[in-house]
Amino acid sequence: MALDLSGVRRVVEKLLDDELQLWRDADGSAGDELDQETGELKPRGSASVLVWAGVGAVVRQGQLSLVPPLDASVAPQVASTAYQGLLPLSAPPVLLDDVLSVSRPVRDPLLVGRRFRVADVGVGTYAVVRVLRLDPVEEHVADSTGC
């Protein structure tokens, strides 16, 4: 007998209430290169392509993440990032280095306009949601002096 997850799916989809956009560089590369003089990531010349726009969620994960089991043991390890992306299964497959942009957050108003680079697509895909590990993209904001 197959397990009916339609009720769980409806509950989880109600939690996916942030408006997100998934961008990919037209040439499939990461799109940023390191400026050796300033240490900042600068966009390369390739244009980004909108792959998907819809509802999802960007949430903070717990402080510990699990590493793959070694001889049937599981060891906690500090997570490399504090954010996870939750996308519906209807979203297209996500690639490493895709950029997830938050256009309208519901739970955290500080996320508006934030961009996150997909660091891991193998966190999990379940019968109701796809989970991604995200790294924040730090953007240089000039102050009033232009620096």
Query: Which series of helices and strands comes N to C?
Result: HEEEEEEEEEE
Task: Give the C-level CATH assignment.
Answer: Mainly Beta
Radius of gyration (CA) equals 17 Å
- At the fold tier of CATH, the topology name is Thrombin, subunit H
What structural class do the secondary elements suggest? mainly beta
**Structure summary, number of beta strands:** 10
Uncertain runs are 140-147
- Measured between the Cα atoms of the first and last residue, the distance is 64 Å
What is the CATH architecture term?
Beta Barrel
User: How many structural domains can be distinguished in the coordinates?
Assistant: 1
Shape: elongated
Summarize the structure.
This protein is mostly beta strands and 147 residues long. The protein contains one helix and ten strands.
Q: How are the SSEs ordered, and which strands pair?
A:
Layout: H1 6-15, E1 18-25, E2 32-34, E3 41-43, E4 48-60, E5 64-66, E6 76-78, E7 83-87, E8 99-104, E9 115-125, E10 130-136
Antiparallel strand pairs: 1-4, 1-8, 2-3, 4-7, 5-6, 7-10, 8-9, 9-10
InterPro entries: DUF6093
What does this structure look like?
- By secondary structure, the chain is mainly β.
- It has one domain: Thrombin, subunit H (Beta Barrel).
- The protein contains one helix and ten strands.
- The strands form three sheets. A six-stranded antiparallel beta barrel has the order 1-4-7-10-9-8. Strands 2-3 form a two-stranded antiparallel ribbon.
- Strand 9 and strand 10 form a beta hairpin.
- The C terminus is likely disordered.
